[in-house]
Design goal:
47% strand; 115 residues; seven-stranded mixed β-sheet; 22% helix
Length: 115
């Protein structure tokens, strides 16, 4: 998960594809569901204008990826994604970027090593 976050933050889309299994499924809740290789997922993040970074966090006791967005001089948690990893390959991504109610409804969140 840390390698996924590191490569995502570097916008290393090819390096990320190496981590994702050929038959991986992607679900961007309320937007897309299907094979990862048929999605515009990385391109959509790459085109965003608001500064963002990913970090690993524990959300309600589950390891997850949290998208941090810059608000003035402060980075704040904005959305969360869950990854399913089998044999060191990502087999499923569920991204809640379009569901603003998910993070506020979490009862706990511990962000790991974020500057």
């Amino acid at each position: 998960m840390h390698l996924y976050v590191d490569r995502f933050n570097k916008r290393d889309w090819d390096g990320l594809r190496e981590l994702i299994s050929a038959d991986a499924q992607l679900r961007v809740v309320d937007r897309f569901a299907g094979p990862f290789d048929e999605s515009p997922y990385f391109g959509n993040y790459d085109r965003q204008r608001v500064p963002w970074r990913l970090t690993v966090a524990e959300v309600d006791g589950e390891l997850a990826v949290v998208v941090m967005r810059q608000h003035r001089d402060e980075w704040r948690p904005d959305s969360v994604a869950r990854l399913e990893v089998i044999d060191q390959h990502i087999t499923r991504i569920v991204d809640y970027a379009h569901c603003p109610w998910v993070l506020p409804s979490a009862s706990s969140m511990v962000v790991a090593d974020y500057p």
